[in-house]
Design goal:
Layout: H1 24-32, E1 37-40, E2 46-49, H2 51-57, H3 61-64, H4 78-89, E3 93-99, E4 110-117, E5 125-131, H5 132-161, H6 163-177, H7 182-206, E6 217-219, H8 221-233, E7 241-245, E8 253-255, H9 257-275, E9 283-290, E10 295-297, E11 304-306, E12 309-315, H10 343-353, E13 357-363, E14 366-373, H11 378-385
Length: about 375
């Protein structure tokens, strides 16, 4: 924590009611941090909070300052013991993978805690929360890419070893159909239909084996999302209400428009199917935002890629079962009775090919699939032309 971020830890008026000019730099520094930061007084009262903390606790800074910390975190939370330890030792303490999920903070909220004393104000401590989901997303994304590579090898094998024999089986069934009776003709038709079904499955998997370079151009993601919404509302999601929360200042991304439509159409279709056709209050919420601070280390390279663009598809369906969530982007994992389990694996592959990551956070009536993507730059344009 930089010193200027802690110089003004006394209570300040609600956001929008700015303090004196001399206090504004410290407040601006706090609000610019992507991680939640709160200051806790000697009696456990919250004396200050930045904008990220308001978002994390889902409450304004004015209301936060009316609470003591133990009312905001789970009963017996390690955070309370850490604060006491910091006060007694007068030194900073870190704790990793602490769950701060409460009825107010719905769902599991794993965070890394960084607690430090405020020397200028005895008894006060500053607490920074770093969401574990970002680090875990990086680990899981490597797993998703490994799964996609496995499907790539399987698809290449299936195309060669399965489609050719199936063609012979189907041809033989068609010949038999000409010489058998009516009772047996239904069996030959069944053979042809099942052969066609397997060929369609192999065709879907062959997409994973396509290693041709992606044709990319600057793409406005809002145009893509509007196109997907119109397609959905005219078909499978005609009975579901859509809402949008877009950041109009987002820059373009360097991508393939058709593939990005395929990604978000798949995510919206999954959301609509999760809600179901009979839900009277079904809603799909599309959001875009700029989230600085997310950087991905590329395997086998020292380079780190910034992923500040966030595009989410949210629904109020029943949620993803806990046992499926860690494997949701693996091939052949599905909750649908007739599903193939390749849709989300393909989503992960396409987004990975674009240099981004995709992740799911789910609980009843609040499921979110979020795509994090790099930003289009002039250097990208030069490489694309060159």
């Amino acid at each position: 924590m930089r010193q200027e971020a802690m110089e003004d830890s006394s209570p300040r008026p609600a956001r929008g009611m700015r303090p004196s000019t001399s206090a504004r730099p410290a407040e601006a520094v706090l609000d610019s941090l992507p991680h939640p930061v709160i200051v806790v007084g000697p009696s456990g009262e919250v004396t200050d909070a930045n904008a990220a903390a308001e978002h994390f606790f889902d409450i304004s800074a004015t209301l936060l300052r009316r609470h003591v910390l133990r009312d905001l975190v789970p009963f017996g939370s390690p955070l309370l013991a850490l604060i006491d330890q910091v006060r007694n030792r007068g030194a900073a303490v870190n704790e990793y993978k602490v769950d701060l999920g409460t009825p107010r903070i719905t769902g599991e909220r794993l965070v890394d805690l960084h607690v430090a004393p405020v020397p200028e104000q005895p008894g006060h401590v500053v607490v920074m929360l770093q969401r574990r989901t970002i680090a875990d997303k990086m680990d899981r994304q490597l797993t998703h890419r490994g799964a996609a590579r496995s499907v790539t090898a399987l698809a290449a094998m299936m195309a060669h070893e399965i489609k050719n024999p199936l063609s012979g089986i189907r041809g033989a069934a068609q010949l038999l159909e000409q010489s058998v009776g009516d009772d047996d003709r239904s069996l030959t038709r069944l053979i042809c239909e099942e052969a066609d079904r397997i060929v369609k499955l192999v065709d879907r998997m062959e997409v994973f084996a396509d290693k041709r370079p992606i044709e990319r151009e600057p793409v406005n993601i809002h145009v893509v999302l509007d196109h997907v919404r119109k397609l959905a509302q005219s078909g499978f999601a005609r009975n579901i209400r859509f809402s949008e929360d877009y950041d109009p200042s987002l820059p373009a991304i360097l991508g393939n428009r058709d593939q990005l439509i395929q990604v978000f159409l798949n995510l919206v279709k999954n959301a609509a199917e999760a809600i179901g056709p009979n839900a009277s209050d079904g809603e799909i919420h599309l959001t875009t935002a700029f989230r600085p601070g997310v950087r991905l280390s590329l395997p086998g390279s020292k380079a780190r890629v910034s992923l500040p663009l966030e595009f989410c598809v949210k629904d109020n369906g029943p949620g993803v079962p806990d046992d499926l969530r860690p494997h949701l982007f693996d091939p052949f994992v599905t909750t649908k009775p007739t599903g193939t389990g390749l849709g989300l694996a393909l989503v992960a592959k396409i987004i990975g090919d674009h240099g981004g990551i995709v992740e799911c956070e789910s609980q009843p009536r609040k499921t979110s699939f979020c795509v994090l993507m790099p930003m289009y730059t002039d250097n990208d344009d030069a490489r694309r032309r060159g």
